[in-house]
Amino acid sequence: MKRALAFAAAAALAGVLVWKLWPQRAPQSPVPQAPTADAEVPTRGAERREVVPSAPAANVRRATAQAPPSSPWAELNNEAVAALERGELERAVELFEQCHAGASDERVFARNLAEALARLAVRDHELERPCKRCVELLERAVQLAPERSDLAQLLERWRKELATESEFHRVQSTHFELAYEVWREGLVDQSADLLAALELHYVELARIFDVRPGERARIPVSLYRPAEFANITGLAEWAGASYDGVIRAPVAEERALGATFDELLRHELIHAFVREAGGRDVPGWLNEGLAQWLQRAPAEDLRRARSALRGQPWIELSSLRGSLTSLPDTATVTRAYAQSLAFCAYLDEQHGRGVLLALVAGCKRGESVDATFQSWTRLRLAEAEALFRAGL
Q1: Domains defined along the chain, listed by start
Q2: Strands 176-180 and 219-224
Q3: Residue 17: helix, strand or coil by DSSP?
Q4: On the chain, which terminus has fewer CB atoms closer than 10 Å, C or N?
């Protein structure tokens, strides 16, 4: 029986994504996401400006408190904010360090430095694993902004990852880096086949999404003993897999890495493509709906989803923008996954896959899915939602 895994996103970070569906899914406790930079472009001026976390992405915005017009630190802070938003993270850290050193009692500067350090840590963590330096950067960020529970949660997870994976064996293919305990002979014997299967999925999904994650840095795939998986992700040991920038999966000693496991990894890889194509703000219903709909053979899952939805309360799409497993109970989470799959399949059938992919791409440009859908179909998304519900 296919098992579900849980996912939750914390305020400023991007997240673990879920597999597989109904009727066994149970929500789990939140797992933090990686900080992202989705912010307004700062303008020059003498006022203080603060990097302010918001859900689901970190923002840069104008601070309400004003610094004296003659303050050299306010001007330098603005320069650092601009560097941060251009992606010049080392430069931003350098400038924020000067601001913080010059006015150590100014909380705006401490919080901005913490955000820059966190973004630098996340960027480098995606390039190098395990990354001791990334843990050290995040430790400093937590010291500077102890109120940032999202950073503290991420730090705890990275520490566990570092302790677990420090001696993992790593094997690379063109787009993936597979990590596991070298003394697990079953994984050693199957690693080449697993990477070959992932590369085949990659070719197909790159054609569908027209993006190529793993070009700058290989997509990490980590295989754990079930207890290790639970310790690092906070998910149940029986969970199927997760994606939080790393594809993570528990593999029991007796488990064969066959077709079911291959399908599970494909699901998580789809999440990696969605993130590459749409950024970290793709609504949960669209993200999970696509990850289910783009499986090799989704017909049976779709049939079960539609059957499960008949006669059940409808969850408005506006309530399914974030983590689906953050919903209040198992029954609601179950409906949310079924609804996401069924509605994405409906949009594909009625309007074409290009519309679904356009909704994802629009998120990366900061456009709402509602606006993108209407621009492509001349129909409001709420109208399509109502038509879908009427046809169940």
Answers
A1: 13-30+166-276 (3.40.30), 35-156 (1.25.40), 284-390 (no CATH)
A2: parallel
A3: coil
A4: N
Q: Which long-range contacts (CB under 8 A, 24 or more apart) does 51-55 make?
A: 51/81, 51/84, 51/111, 51/112, 51/115, 51/116, 52/111, 53/11, 53/12, 53/115, 53/148, 53/150, 54/11, 54/12, 55/9, 55/11, 55/12, 55/322
- Give the three-class secondary structure for 169: strand
End-to-end CA distance of the chain: 26
Please write down the long-range contacts of 107-110, taking CB distance under 8 Å and 24 or more positions apart.
108/48, 108/49, 108/50, 108/63, 108/65, 108/77, 109/73, 109/77, 110/144, 110/145
Tokens for 335, please give them.
């409906």
Q: How many CA atoms lie within 13 A of 18 on its CB side?
A: 39
Q: Which two tokens stand for residue 22?
A: 């109904």
Q: How far apart are CA 237 and CA 218, in angstroms?
A: 26
Cβ contact 62:75 at 8 Å: no
Quote the pLDDT of residue 69. 58
Could you give the CA distance from residue 227 to residue 33 in angstroms, rounded to a whole number? 21
Residue/partner pairs of 101-106 with CB below 8 Å, 24 or more apart: 102/72, 102/73, 102/76, 103/73, 106/48, 106/73
DSSP 318: G
Per-residue confidence band for 330, with pLDDT thresholds at 50, 70 and 90: confident
Residue 146, SS3 per DSSP: coil
Tell me which residue of 303, 340, 213, 268 sits closest to 348, measured CA to CA.
340
Q: Which of 32-46, 134-148, 235-249 has the highest mean pLDDT?
A: 134-148
Q: Which pLDDT score, from 0 to 100, does residue 238 have? A: 63
Whether pTM > 0.85 for this model: the answer is no
